[in-house]
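**Backbone geometry record:**
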Amino acid sequence: MIDSSHSSFLRRLGARWKLSVLLLLLVSVAAGTWWFWIVPRRIERFYGQAVEEYRAGDYVAAVRSLERAYALNSRAVQVNILLGWSHWRLGHAEQAEFHFARAHRLDPAVEEARLGLAYASLALGKISVALPLFQELAGKHPEDKGIQLALGEAYVKSGQNLRAARFYRDMVDRDHDPDAEREFLALYGYQEYTPTLPLTLPPLRRPPQTQIYFRTHGDNFQALDGEAWKDTYIVGVNLGPARPGEFPSSASRDFWTYMKWFTQVGQMNANAVRAYTVLPPAFYQALKAYNESGASPLYLVQEVWIPEDAEDLYESAVDQEVRQEIVNTIDLLHGQADLPYRKGHHYGIYTADVSRHVLALAIGREIDPRVVQITNSQNPSQTAYQGRDISLPRGNPTEVWLARMTDLAARYELEKYNSQRPLTIVNWPPLDPLVHPTEATYREEIEIRKKLGESISEVVPRFMNDADVVSVDIKNFKPQAEFAAGLFALYHIYQHWPDFLLTEPSYAQAQDAEGPNRYLGYLRELKKAYPNFPLFVGEYGLSTSMAAAHLQPQGWNNGGLTEQQQADLLVRFTRNIRDTGYAGGLVFEWQDEWFKHVHDSYTADFERPWDRNPLWLNELDPEKSFGIVGYEPSIPAPLLRGEPADWQNAKTLYSPRTEQVDPSHPPGQVRDVYAMSDFAFFYLFLDVEKDSLDWTKWNYWIALNTLPDQCGSRLLPDIQVRIESGANFLIQLSGPTSSSILIAQNYNPNQRMPLPGRPDETRVLRKQGMNLELAGSSPFEEI
């Protein structure tokens, strides 16, 4: 028997259960409607919208639409695939790979996902993923040129140059494909295609007699002329690894580019070029062809690069990399190298034997004093080296390491090719053997500033890039009798740095036929340290950038020079080098290189994104404008003379003629605003009613933002104008002598600050820890 209270409870429980079931059913129906009806249609709508945006080329909008669909269902295969292609079109390889890989995992049978994953993996260097995918896809789609070419690239990047060469050649022979032909020629550096071009390295033939075509003698180089040795003075240019628009690892692989340059260099009465790293095969093929053309030959000074991130040169990875680079370089100079692809390096099949015209090998680069100090500190027991061809009776550990490398170069070339040539190490004034009393170390500078009253609490690191604290001197190396080619000293010597070139009193006393010459003063002093020993200037040059990064008392600054000043000073320095008894000199450089930057320029730390650095010319950075050959826009820049014809290619930014304007056209009224840009500048043209223009009544303000919505000021305080996306630059045109360019205070990286302890002195210093932000209001100030 059940009592009434319990029965009532069961009735209430049953009612609640029925209500719960009903609610659950309603929720299930709602959820089902959401997931099986509403969500798919919303995804379909976002996806359809993205397809239209993708087809219209608006990949940013396509990504936004697809991300809304992805948020609803991250497992939608087609959404992931189109997200992958949209990111791919935007150059976002990592995001593309993520979505292609996700789609591939969700449905391995979808070929479009495999194709996208193959391309993205190839771009990211994940060759173990890309290669088998492309092999499968190429077999299924022999008619798809893009897939076939990508498979060839995958062979190259997997280190299979010969397999790639055969693959490209088959494409050319089968389909007459110009892209495959270009890639095939680039692998070898050949000038034109024929089906009989050799694919493998030529047979190695070691001559019975040691081949020596160049040697050092006294202060000079000598070249073998028939049976006699003849003193040969070297003049020429440094030929860098990249033109504007290229990184060093993406230099031209076209034979005719280098052939044109060699022809022009020869016409300049030069007899040498220098490559400061291994260049593509086309460089050596063209050099061989040029020297066989009947023109006066160009000699090559080939440098062997040391990794830039090296600190302790004895560190195993650094030591092994440089040893391998020496071996590779000597092999390729003899046309006996198949260099596999390595990111950041040149690669290919080197069949051109240019050894007959290789004047010298130079080991190293401008090694920072800090690296020398670290190397010496970490390896104190390394104070001498006894080699087979090159020895060092006594020296510091860095010199010992470099002596080992030069000995390796001499020994390897003699053993494999029975050949010798002069050897050197790359050096520069901070490591010269001279003593410079006026050159203060950073630690000494701190002490001087303290004595002047500055409050400085800075802790100076143990090792700094101080000039004149340590030296590296090839004069300490001793060639053995069997090494007949000899050694020489190579220095990069510029007129503007280090500071001791500007401060040593004796250098200021030097004069040539044109007057005082500090550069000549240093040349003379350095030559005294190398009597009866060839001393060679591996680099000297001047920049024609708009701004100067380092000042020189005679006005020979690092940058800020006209092309005429550059030319006149190059002629003057060339004569100084010759007249001081040097063995020769090479101008830096043949063509401008935009991928470089000088650390003490105004803008070096602000070039973003860095992977676009070579694509535009920063006129404020001297390092980008040393070239004898400059690069001009294909469309001439508008002349700033107010001629409408100069702006025919411009874009109209503003035209009030379609809006309400003052029909009386008062003087100064803006009629149109036009804009143009090239790889160096942004140009604006304000077309105004200029008759009787009164600057006391008219001002023009131009607000710019290089990072809209990210930085600067929304309010322009001077004119009380508000711009929601903000401005970080403000140009005021108020007359020929009073106009100015202002910068938002919260975007200006520099500030003038009083020196602690010396309130009477101020210094322009870089702000520390500055964060970019878009402020409601920020003052604008002079840059």
